[in-house]
Amino acid sequence: MTNNSFLRSQLLSFTLFIAFIAFAHLLLVFKVLPEIYQLTKPWTIYAFLFPVTLIGFILIYRRYLKDETSVVNSYMLFTSVKMLGTLVFLSQWLFPKNEITYPFLHQFFVIFFIFLFLEIRILIQMLNNSTSKIEKN
Q: Which whole number is the average pLDDT over 34-56?
């Protein structure tokens, strides 16, 4: 698999899976969960996490193309920056605690861990791709 096709296939599968999760999440929020969950504006979670994760993945992949051993270091740097960004993003819900704070935080961290799972899955595939290249040589 070429470098561009690997990147495209991973980004496409990531986007489709997140679209499915977002659809299921919004369906739960508007049809099943109490009305308080609708007031939390759950779309803001995706508006923050999706572009941050996408940009991080692209930057990690570009660094991987230059140096295949840098994936772990790049991921740790990306995770640190993402955690700081998350604190800034969540500060608007953490400090003025009101009735929507906890429903929003519950939704955010469930989605955050889904994104984390997908990031790790993609990185493992990236590392497996580099190991298969080494074995071929």
A: 89
The structure tokens listed for 10 are 């991973």
Q: Can you give the residue range of the structural domain that contains 72?
A: 3-131
| % of the chain with per-residue pLDDT over 70 | 92
Q: For the chain, how many structural domains are there in total?
A: 1
Is 96 within the bounds of a domain?
Answer: yes
Instruction: Tell me how crowded residue 55 is: count the other CB atoms within 10 A of its CB.
Output: 13
Tokens representing 118 are 């997908």
Tell if the pTM clears 0.90, that is, is over it: no
Each residue of 58-68: b (16+ CB within 10 Å) or e?
Answer: eebbebbeeee
- The residue ranking higher by pLDDT, 128 or 87, is 87
SS (H, E, C) the chain: CCHHHHHHHHHHHHHHHHHHHHHHHHHHHHHCCCHHHHHHCCHHHHHHHHHHHHHHHHHHHHHHHHCHHHHHHHHHHHHHHHHHHHHHHHHHHHCCCCCCHHHHHHHHHHHHHHHHHHHHHHHHHHHHHHHHHHHHC
Task: Enter the tokens of residue 40.
Answer: 């939390």
> Is there a domain that residue 52 lies in?
yes
